């Protein structure tokens, strides 16, 4: 047991990337079709307006991608839809790059990736990285890599990684995501 703990600590200290579980969305929960290790958000009682699924057809070669679809009859309200997971082992003072590949169909406001750093109280965000906003005139039909940067502040206790898009301008639209990364950027 002692050996296991020591080894784990050592490997975490020297790893160049934070571990993002199921970062390629290739692992699918068989019952639901949802990606393993990610949690999908929705409005209470209105889950039917958003769909998260692992998509074999639209994945890159040899795997699946996350497919996120907002139904055409979505109510006229702004909702930030995303799947998220919490990361551990990010080093305070270290700059990190967040990245993911994306494609879109019928989406006007580009999807993105965000990393939010919270302290122990979890009340206020200490810092965040995101891949920016962009108005789309046409679909992103070839995989495009999005990226953003953040330096992890002292006192960060929780780093929440989100992948998603707003309902604004995107009702009836679909986005695909693949290959999410959080790596050191020095
Ligand atoms: Ca994949």
Summarize this structure as a short list of keywords or feature phrases.
186 residues; mainly beta; Jelly Rolls; five-stranded antiparallel β-sheet; 1 helix; 7% helix; globular; disordered N terminus; binds calcium ion
The CATH H-level homologous superfamily: Galactose-binding domain-like
Structural class: mainly beta
Secondary structure tally: strands: 10
Tally of separate domains: 1
Output the helix-strand order: HEEEEEEEEEE
Regions with little confidence, pLDDT below 50 for 5+ residues: 1-14
Strand content: 35-45%
For the largest sheet, list the strands in their spatial order.
Answer: 1-4-9-6-7
Give me a quick take on this structure.
By secondary structure, the chain is mainly beta. It has one helix at about 1-15; strands at about 40, 50-55, 65-70, 80-85, 95-105, 110-120, 125-130, 145-150, 160-165, 175-185. It has a single domain (about 20-185), classed as Jelly Rolls (Sandwich).
Descriptive notes:
The chain is mainly beta. The protein has one domain: Galactose-binding domain-like (Jelly Rolls, Sandwich), CATH 2.60.120.260. It is 7% helix and 40% strand. It is built from one helix and ten strands, in the order H-E-E-E-E-E-E-E-E-E-E. The strands form two sheets. Strands 1-4-9-6-7 form a five-stranded antiparallel beta sheet, with no helix packed on it. Strands 2-3-10-5-8 form a five-stranded antiparallel beta sheet, with no helix packed on it. Strand 6 (112-118) and strand 7 form a beta hairpin. The two termini are 34 Å apart. 31% of the residues are buried. The structure holds calcium ion (CA). Residues 24-26, 59-60, 63-65, 178 line the site of calcium ion (CA).
């Amino acid at each position: 047991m002692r050996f296991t703990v020591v080894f784990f600590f050592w490997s975490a200290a020297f790893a160049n990337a934070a571990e993002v579980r199921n970062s390629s969305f290739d692992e699918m929960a068989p019952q639901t079709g949802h990606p393993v290790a990610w949690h999908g958000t929705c409005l209470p009682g209105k889950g039917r307006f958003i769909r998260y699924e692992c998509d074999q057809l639209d994945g890159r070669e040899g795997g699946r991608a996350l497919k996120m679809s907002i139904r055409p009859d979505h109510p006229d309200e702004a909702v930030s839809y995303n799947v998220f997971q919490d990361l551990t082992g990010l080093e305070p003072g270290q700059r990190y790059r967040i990245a993911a590949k994306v494609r879109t169909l019928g989406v006007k406001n580009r999807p993105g990736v965000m990393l939010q750093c919270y302290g122990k109280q979890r009340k206020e965000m200490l810092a965040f990285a995101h891949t920016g906003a962009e108005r789309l005139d046409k679909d992103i039909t070839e995989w495009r890599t999005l990226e953003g940067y953040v330096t992890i502040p002292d006192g960060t206790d929780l780093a929440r990684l989100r992948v998603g898009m707003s309902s604004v301008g995107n009702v009836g639209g679909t986005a695909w995501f693949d290959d999410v990364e959080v790596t050191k950027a020095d």
